[in-house]
Design a protein that fits this description.
Strand order of the largest sheet of chain A: 6-7-8-3-9-10
Order of helices and strands of chain B: HHHHHHHHHH
CATH architecture of the largest domain in chain A: 3-Layer(aba) Sandwich
Strand content of chain B: under 5%
Largest interface: A-B, 35 and 26 residues
Number of strands of chain B: 0
Structural class of chain A: alpha/beta
Number of helices of chain A: 7
Helix content of chain A: 25-40%
Oligomer: heterodimer
Order of helices and strands of chain A: EEEHEEEHHHEHEEEHH
CATH class of the largest domain in chain A: Alpha Beta
Structural class of chain B: mainly alpha
Strand content of chain A: 15-25%
Chain lengths: 269, 245
Amino acid sequence: MMNKTGAGAPGREPAVRASGLRVARGGAEVLRGLDFTVERGTVTGLLGPSGCGKTTLMRAVVGAQARVTGSLEALGRPAGSPALRRRLGYVTQAPSVYTDLTIRQNLDYYAAVLGVPRAGRRDAVDAVLADVDLTARADALAADLSGGQRSRVSLAVALLGTPELLVLDEPTVGLDPVLRRSLWGLFHRLAAERGTTLLISSHVMDEADRCDRLLLMRAGRILAEGTPDDLRERTGAASVEEAFLRLVDADEKEENENEEGERKAKVTP
Amino acid sequence: MNATRTLATARRVLLQLRHDPRTIALLLLVPVLLLVLLHYVYDADRGAFDFIGSSLLGIFPMVTMFLVTSIATLRERTSGTLERLMTMPLGRGDLIAGYALAFGVLAVAQAGLATGVALWFLDLDIAGSPWLLLLVALLNALLGTALGLFVSAFAASEFQAVQFMPAMIFPQLLLCGLFAPRDSMQPLLEYASNVLPMSYAVDGMTEVLRHPDVTGDFTRDVIVVASVALGVLALGAATLRRRTA
């Protein structure tokens, strides 16, 4: 297998590898047999409409999702292994920070939990504050921040342990264009400079072109995976959004045909 | 279990409270004011004040810690911070012990203030040592924390969490011997009161009230309350799941 980062170190399996991944929730199957890989050191976008299973997939990768069947590995270990807890960072869709603490107090606590030694904690916190551009607001109460600032605090928490795999659930939703650009800049810096793998979900298709690779999802299945150029070429579309829509149409058509076929089979004696 | 992570959690919980001075003031002052009220309610009956007052010194920490813990952990469950912590190298025991430690500190402050005011300003007359009163109060606080943590797993909202207070605490209050001696109750209720932890908490306070030395009954009461608290804390830990649907 080609190794993008060129490190050639042993054990450089893909950052995430899934095969036959299924998740049931409340009697319904939310993920319906997924096969995909996320290569190390890439920024991989997980795109699809709301409710298609993106969050469930991310929760499965970080080991927070119950009732996962099939095979799912993160950094070469079964997802949810205790050893992975210090190697991956997870940012939930809603900012999961303590609103009754200051930004610095939040980060101090999470750093202690992640096992950052006491002596290095202040530097670690300062570094992630600079990464998300919140140094000036370090002593503000999280409750007093804007929604966008609070989600950046949540992102800063995930950066604390310098994780190898970052799983970010819609980190740029609701942010202004300038901030979005600077965050995408940060994501690519993390991948290029630290070799971090980033799996980022979004339902905004215009963010697709900022990703190295894409996983397009619909209704609990992966419709397509590849680079943005691949997907455009394969579908003959001008944009990823159009490519996605064409894939959806083709998928729907196939589904309808299958259903019709089933109905006909029932009618014929 | 990891000492750094447990202490960091306790520190974080206390810092959260520090940003909420009104809650701290209510926690510390309400028991004192209620004792003052009780003092004047039993203006003519000092014996009744001694009995009810010393029992209340044990009941306050249990009730307040129950409420504070159930809301605090419910918030942790619903805000996503628990889910995040569970993907990190934090043991469930670290989280539980951190909470117990933080609220234990608060309970010591609360019980210390209430006991001090009761003994020195309200002439609460006890035969035993005030330190023993404090010990029972602290164990009651631990029990309240444990129960609060446990029920927060079954509450989907703050409304529900608050309603668990009358459901879990009031029956124990009615059966603990404060309103009627336990051995005068309908036999079925007497059996029930024998298995409820608050009965032992109040009994322990009464032992300190009546006897200058540590009695066998007092030792039994302390052991019962402490073991129930630890048992419920373990149950609470079991309700924290790394993987959720």
